[in-house]
Amino acid sequence: MKWFPLAETDMKKREIPAGQIPSMDVEQLIKAISEEPDGLTINELVDIYNFNRPAQKQLTRLLNNLQGTGILRRYGNAYRWADSNRVFIGTIRQRRRKSITFLPDDDHERSRGKLQVQPEDTNGAFDGDRVIAYVTRARGNERTAKVQMLLRRGQLKVIGRLHLAHRFNFVESLDEKFPFEIDVEPGLNDEDGKIVVVEVTRYPSTHENAAGTIIERLGAFSDEPGLDIEIIIRKHDLPHLFPPEVDAESESVSPVVTDDQCVGRLDLRDVLTVTIDGETARDFDDAISLHKLDNGNYSLGVHIADVSFYVREKTALDAEAALRGTSVYFPERAIPMLPEKLSNGICSLNPKVDRLTMSALMEVNSSGKVVSYQLRETVIRSNERMTYTDVNKVLTNSDTVVSDQYADFIAFFRTMEELAQVLINMRKDRGAIDFNLPEAVFRFNDEGQIAGVLKAERNIAHRIIEEFMLLANETVAGHLERLGIPSLYRIHEQPEPQRVIEFAELAGAFGYRFPVEGVNSHDYQRLSHLLTGKPEEKVLSYAMLRSLQRARYAANNAGHFGLAAPTYTHFTSPIRRYPDLIVHRILRALLQRSPSLGDSSSVPKAQSKTRNPLMPIAPSELALIAEESSERERSADAAERELEDWRKAVLMAKHVGEEFDGLIANVREFGFFVELDELYIEGLVAVSSLTDDYYEFDSRRHTLRGRQNRKIFRLGDRVRVRVDRVNVDRHLVDFSVVLQPFSRRSRKP
Known about the structure:
Helix content is 31%, strand content 27%. The protein has 749 residues and is of the alpha+beta class. It starts with 7 loop residues before the first helix and ends in a 6-residue tail after the last strand. 37% of the residues are buried.
């Protein structure tokens, strides 16, 4: 029998009377019972913990409550571990008010996918709390959980704005996951309105406000450049400082490629190779080599930084990379997955220096089919670091200075463009969906303040690299799958039927037919083509996107609906994505067994239906990595979107009272959202601001219709609005209508 005595120091720290049961030790109690096959009786537990009589009564109540959750069962006088497949101990994770998940300790259950918790099912638990939860049955692909019992509070940290009053001080939370005012210590020598981080020490109840201690002071939002990023980092719990042991490991890595590291690698240093990235990029994951063969096919080399050589399993570097899951990119700052010594140094495919790579060497025919390939550990030396802008200038011959500068590369880039067009046509024939949706880019003035929002430019050079990366990812995924080797996949599942029905109704309101049964990617592609250049293109394209499921990582292949690809993975960005690093490790284990196992000739004609005995990473571990990586990706995306919304609100705060033209982008029962034409900024026209009539919402037609005057506000209508109010902290922009819809979108394709 294992004993779990209570530490005296811990009891003194919490000022708990001797013999009483601290709530923090309930998990120890459960663990003690779970490790005894025959369970433990109350008397045995009393002897173990030396409880007095009042504590015995408390223990009895606690055990009965635990039995009620289903985590324990009673057999005679003994309480045993229930070993239930529906009740688990774990941690609550909350990023936003309605984005709450339960992370069970049980690896198998956790690997099965995300467990969503509805706000009404938290039972008073917040982010970081340890709980017992009941897993409800799945609804479609969604699995949910309900909190049964709170075991222990976590260390909840909330970011907010400090308010100083005469007799008391409080922090107004800026964090959706804890929307309560928090009392803090009086007598602070601080500036009113300062942004602070508070550790919650008392949770809200019907009788008391939440209370906490200020642990970090960030400054005043109005005059601190970059403070918005600091706030977003803390709101989304993004790890942004590397622990000392991680820095120490990165410092021990050789800053140059040595001769012994090149032994056994395919030497491609004499092959013409370039990197193509954005102007501000500092870490280069990928490089390209390309030439035409005598048979008319293309010999394409996609060379990816060999991060797995430097970041080994069971190291501090690996643990930190897994924790972060992905790099996070803000306009003027990146939070990298790996320390700069690696991400911008030895792993980055910088020009004119040797670099270790994993390469996909593919022979592609004129139809875009890969007829043969080799996957190899290689060493390259990039000839040039190119930007998308300069490559586009060369291809369009729009800048003679740039064209002259890269005259030796012109034929190389022309061949790239030629092959990219072949691949574009191949994907189009296959049914891949390509949404032409603008992305916002902020413009700053000389003082670093936001001066405007522009549409991001996307040219042929972007498409070239995108197509080559897609091809490499598919090639690696298909190779590992056909060999029957467990791996990670990037999957995009079929859209949910209800969302398809809702979108079909919306498309029908605009005069377009869209199937509600047996829908495939060709249906989306066809409609996207019909919408090109139409007034309703943006509205319906966004609606199409919302009807699709979100792509995610998985240990079991389910295909990629959007790409119309039967097998797909992420292989091409191991510097900034942990799943790519995992795929590299799996491929490395294969190649080190025998380089010929990376050849297309080594795979069976049909996909293997049995697991390959070579199993570098167990499927259960891969499933867990997939779920955690998907969650970190969602957090990073949410952080990037929130910063964008915040900065748009900052910009609009300067335009209160001004009028703009825009498009009704979404209609809801509480109002409609208008996207401004020039600024790519969205705001709400609340139904309460439409005072000329009572407006009723029609969910099928996506309209608000006046009951008396019969005025209609439709999705896709154009309106002129005035900026009435802006709440920067909440990123909310409120409009009011100046003119009724002044132009209708076309009703027929």
